[in-house]
Amino acid sequence: MNSRLLVVLLAVFPLWAQVRFTQGAEKISVEIDGKPFTEFFYGPAAPKPYLHPLRAASGVIVSRHFPMAKVEGETTDHPHHRGLWFTHGDVNGVDFWANEPPGKRTNLGRVVINKIVSAQDGKIAALFDWVGPSGNKLVAESRTMTFYSDPRLRTIDLDITLTPVGTVKFGDTKEGTFAVRVASGLEAPGKNIPADPPRTGKMIDAEGRESEAGVWGKRAPWVDVYGEVEGQRIGIAIMDHPANPHYPTFWHCRAYGLCAANPFGAREFMNDQTQDGSITLRPGQTLRFRYRVVIHPGDPQTAGIAAQYKQFSAMR
After folding, report:
1. Which residue of 21, 23, 39, 67 is 20 to 30 Å from 119, comparing CA positions?
2. Residue 35: strand pairing partners
3. Range 124-143 average pLDDT
4. What is the pTM of this model?
């Protein structure tokens, strides 16, 4: 195919043209280029909306199955780590992060569906309510997720706006905020974990710092977790837009498989009690967050993650 014909085809078939949605009562299934990619869960069984499983363009699953399912060789820690999600651990003292019931904790919140606005042209637009333990609404969330077709990559852009009901404080805690729990192969090697599948995971941030020791609690525009899953070299990058609050974000990324962008946790990440990463919203104010997730073959260098971040950061 010559380059001129390719340009014409891209003009006729934009990158979202091969994205298809199938909407059910509690989830929306996402198909890209005729192959399943992920499902967006938002029903009453979900304490928060999440995407699961996440697949590479090859079909390999790069997110952990637990707690949605138990798979041989997976760890079963942190049952609140559901696929790919966005919440926070301290919103007026209410925990929307580790909010899996039951237990004796009484400060658990839920993010509940208000309305699926649309699911077409490669985008899912939805409204959610962040509801406290007594049923009181604290925050209204508007979310748009854009999915792209590409022969090698799986890319999602998330655009999230939070509007308070009354005065709302997003507290300084490491327990947040935009996160993914990765597949076993992308975990780093460690003790007391199953030997199979092999743990081959590595992580690197935009500044070139590596491993949990170099990445956790540091600020950076992006982080990539990569390794080998089902015999394929593969990775998943999370990118923080320059217009986001407290950019560049702190990273709550762990060797055991969690990687989260958290703009709020300055005190804990810096281990400095004089710091305060909290943000207080008053009526009429909003917080807007934009993130990009790129699932790619190879490592961050061969996948061109730095160049892709440059393109994402230029978006307005």
Report:
1. 67
2. 32
3. 97
4. 0.94
- Position 102 scores a pLDDT of 72
Residue 229 in tokens: 């899953």
**CB under 8 Å to 118, separation ≥6 — which residues?**
124, 125
pLDDT at 302 over 50: yes
Element (H, E) at 211: helix 211-215
Q: Is 42 exposed, middle or buried (0-12, 13-18, 19+ CB in 10 A)?
A: buried
What is the spatial distance between Cα 242 and Cα 220, in angstroms, rounded to a whole number? 10
What is the chain's Cα-based Rg?
19
- The verdict on whether omega for the bond into residue 102 sits within 30 degrees of 0, i.e. cis, is yes
